[in-house]
């Protein structure tokens, strides 16, 4: 979604929420929190289901535990003009 589309969706959502009773507003908030949590879990399951990525994570964790700094790229080389 483009930034402009996101802003329009946010405006529409806020406008819709403004017309709700307090009880319905609490239900809407619960649903928003559910969607946010679900999105995080979907990302987690995507990573856990990727064998190659999990193997790389385990190798990095092992290297980190053994203090093998040469296995990692320094932040100065990774970062860009942020």
Account of the 3D structure:
The protein has 82 residues and is an all-alpha fold. It has one domain (3-78). 76% of the residues lie in helices and 0% in strands. The chain has helices at 3-18, 22-48, 51-65, 75-78. It is elongated, with a radius of gyration of 21 Å. The two termini are 22 Å apart.
How many β-strands, per DSSP?
0
Query: How many angstroms separate the termini?
Result: 22 Å
SS-derived structural category: mainly alpha
Using the alpha-carbon principal axes, give the shape.
Answer: elongated
How much helical structure, as a percent, in the residues? Answer: over 70%
What fraction of the residues are assigned to beta strands by DSSP?
under 5%
How would you state the average pLDDT, rounded? 92
**N to C succession of SSEs:** HHHH
The total tally of domains equals 1
Largest sheet: none
Rg result: 21 Å
Low-confidence stretches: none
Tally of helical runs:
4
List the helices and strands and how they pair.
Blueprint: H1 3-18, H2 22-48, H3 51-65, H4 75-78
Briefly, what is this?
The protein has 82 residues and is an all-alpha fold. 76% of the residues lie in helices and 0% in strands.
Give short descriptive properties of this protein.
82 residues
